[in-house]
Here is the input.
Amino acid sequence: MKHVGLNVAADPFFTLAYTGVEGGVVIISADDPGLHSSQNEQDNRFYARHAGVPMLEPADSQEAYEFTKLAFALSEEFDTPVLLRMTTRVSHSRSPVVATGDRVEPNLLPAPKNQSKYVMVPAYAAQRHAIMLDRLTRLTAWAEAASINRAEPGGGDVAFVSAGVAYEYLREVMPSAPVLKLGMTYPLPPALARGIAGGRRLIAVEELEPYLAEQLAALGITAASLPADLRLGELTPARVCEALDRLGVTVEHPVAAPMESPEASPALPSRPPVLCPGCSHRPVFHVLKRMGLLVTGDIGCYTLGALPPLAALHTCLCMGAGISEAHGISRALDGAQPVVAVIGDSTFAHSGLPALANMVYNRSNAVVLILDNRTTAMTGGQDHPGTGRTLMGEDTPAMDPLAVAQAMGVGFARRVNAYDIKTLRATIGEALAHDGPAVIVTEGPCALLYRVRSDPYAIDEQTCVACGLCLQLGCPAIQAEEREGKMVPWIDKMLCTGCGLCAEVCPTNAIHLLPSS
Here is the structure.
């Protein structure tokens, strides 16, 4: 899971550290320094310390493979979940991996009946807490002798401690320095850390928070942190050089930050992400914007509805938050301001159900639009409980979000074709007038996953008045060029999927289907 996914799983994660796990349980959590695709830059290394579970941090693809196998072995040996902490760069990099050993299938044993171990009432939990603390003592001893933690010798009066991809950057610019390379970053090996310091100045090179520096300080070992402003975003070899220079360290192999040559061609314009041509979310946000409504949302392709030119999504906190926020705003303002929540069909199954139940239970007057495009579109096109297929492609009963809403007690529940903007607008208006929570399921398959494509459209230049309304849809297939002081639109037929939304909004009927070839 990503770093924020562990927030959702935190409740069982913490208590698993008490109960133990019998067979191996490994939680792979990928942090996202630089927010390439996330809503925050949280550092999940603190989860290991907080929950009291061991944590491994691979620095490259080979270690990701080896540490995963090791994590399962540790989990079984010490009867504990193990956190394998990745980062964006390690997750997205590629390098040769040498596979070692054959896969061993474990024997399937009966699930144990052991109340004192698995029933976490206070009396039993207190006993398990003591066992967890003893386990950490034994894991610390293991960390001291483990080959994944190694003190790499070197000269000079400055030593370093590092882990993960930050270690690779450090080694690129300081190949001869003494370094404590940590593969297990919780619990730390105190003797190894004291040995690498050895009276020298110690610097912790790490991404995001000063986790290693703080853990070392708790052991009575002083390690300088990187400058505070470098806690923002990913590290690079150049940023490590900058940090060491500011800390007064002479860098062996300086790496300058890339600079644009004065002779270079002009910088390319930015290309922010956009909804795909033919996306069924686009007509929904077009209607919501035209109605001037406050729209709350969360994580998914529909988050892109916040960007210009649609600019029709006004909140994005976490999965499922759109419904909760709509409920809160509706209650706080006593219905004085109309509010609409949008949530994808996959997210509705993931975390929207409890929020909708809360709306019904507390008699909210907000409207919920479930944007059903039959997939988990933004993060891989996976199936979900509403598609009728398992992740392995097997048939399974499909959850109908409309039937679920009605079963929860939603009094106004309708299904609308997402591309029928007139009906959609009228239905939203009815829902807003309804006394109580309302749910509208907008249907339209993911244009990318389901290869939705019809004959393309074209713009009649003689009829077009360059009003720009079609450009406000934010469709990548609709381009524009300046002519006589006006931005004149045209449609790229290679990108157009033939959804017809532009033709519906055109006030002069200048957009029409191209004849089939």
User: Anything to note?
Assistant: The chain has four domains: 3-145, 150-246, 281-443, 457-513. The chain has a mean pLDDT of 93. The CA atoms of residues 314 and 393 lie 36 Å apart. The chain is about 35% helix and 15% strand.
